[in-house]
Design brief:
Layout: E1 8-12, H1 15-19, E2 28-35, H2 44-55, E3 61-65, E4 72-76, E5 85-86, H3 96-112, E6 122-127, E7 136-143, H4 149-158, E8 161-162, H5 184-187, H6 194-212, E9 235-243, H7 244-254, H8 258-277, E10 288-294, H9 304-309, E11 319-325, H10 335-351, H11 354-369, H12 371-383, E12 387-392, E13 399-401, E14 404-414, E15 420-427, E16 430-438, H13 444-462
Parallel strand pairs: 5-6, 10-12, 12-15
Antiparallel strand pairs: 1-4, 2-7, 2-14, 3-4, 6-7, 8-13, 9-16, 10-11, 13-14, 15-16
Amino acid sequence: MEFGEGGLLQEPVSPGSQLVNSSVLSLAILAVLESEVPIDDSQTFLLLKNVFLQINPRFSSIMVQGVDEKNKQWKRVEVNLEDHVHVPIFPSGMSLESYDTYFDEYITKIASETFPQSRPLWELHLFKYPTSHAAGQIIFKIHHALGDGYSLMGALLSCLQNAQNPSLPLTFPSLKGAKNETNSRSRVFEFVPKIFSAVINDAWDLCWSILKGTWVEDDRTPIRSGVDGVEFRPLSVSTLMLPIEEIKLIKNKLGVTINDVISGTIFLGIRMYIQEMDNEKSSSQNCTALVLLNSRLAAGYKSVQEMLIETNKSWGNRIVFLPVTVPKSSEVTKPLDFVWEAHNIIKRQRNSSSWYLTTRLLDILKKFRGPEVVSNYIYNTLKNSSTGITNMIGPLEQMSIANHPIKGIYFIVTGAPQCLAITAMSYMGKLRIAFEAEKGFIDTNVLQACLKDAFRVICEAANEFPIK
């Protein structure tokens, strides 16, 4: 990649990157790697210099104003690694429960901090104390402006090896969806002329997306306070593990996708939580989940080198928000209906061109009004919704980094003006669901229990269906 005068990259900062790093909105990704062995940080700076910084020039660049005041560019700078590596110090000889508390407080602290714009937008945190989950924890905090989850996770995985045989590449689950559609209700629409249906759906989805970014907001519920400045409030992070094999079994029995099962479980869990915390209004309150999807036509992760030389230049921010209405318990009563509703809504929105039209509309708005206006629109879209949901696939094999076997991995997205954000990632046959919730407003213990109950009742209901 060539640089121009003054160290500026020839290509400007992408529109998507500008929108998530503005005075209005600043999003970051925290990826937590749980080590099986105590952390030895003797190779940290060598690995960062020789591996991480070599992945992409953006990891050694800062965002600066370009010639055009509406556009920014990347400027290559000298990286002082000591500014980016943080090793917190806590009392030694404490119990695992005490270090659990220290870790929770530490990740809450770094999640709420913003990046200095004077240096590259990433950090590495080494929590060198044992917790109930791991012997040590490695936390990568990377600004969303450097890339979307697909790009950044691909970069992170490029630094890791197959723990059993470093000479073999990591492999990933297939992303193929279900071939058979067994939902009888969806078959009714096969008789409707497809073109007419698509036009109606696209128009409705586009209007709904615009309204969510302007003045239509969800009801105030136990997962949405509706107050300003939620993104600056303390948060708590908790995780839940689900078996991938059981999710696949439900997927095959119902003829849906893994994403549908995950989304349906989350939707049912959310409704159960709202009912637990506010039984009087829970069945009729309006909730919208922004489901983040990758707009690439990718069958799985590629190496970063492949990503960078692809003709479609898949590095960067290529995500779309699909506003999905969380089914109301007053309208959907059976557990499996939440999965089928998620399947029908997400499938229709995936096939809709509304996200493309919305993107083009935002491009026009950015051209004439500037990136700050568009960033404010995205901020309002997030603020007016109840939660955000995103998921990623991880390796089937165990990973290691610098001879540290990784027993678990999860990630969260910080900086969104929402009281609740939910992420999911698969790894070694398990699905790790992470909850990022406003501390003192959302009871994560009750929420976890509701998600477990939701998955249990969905599993029990699916047992009545034959295996296909």
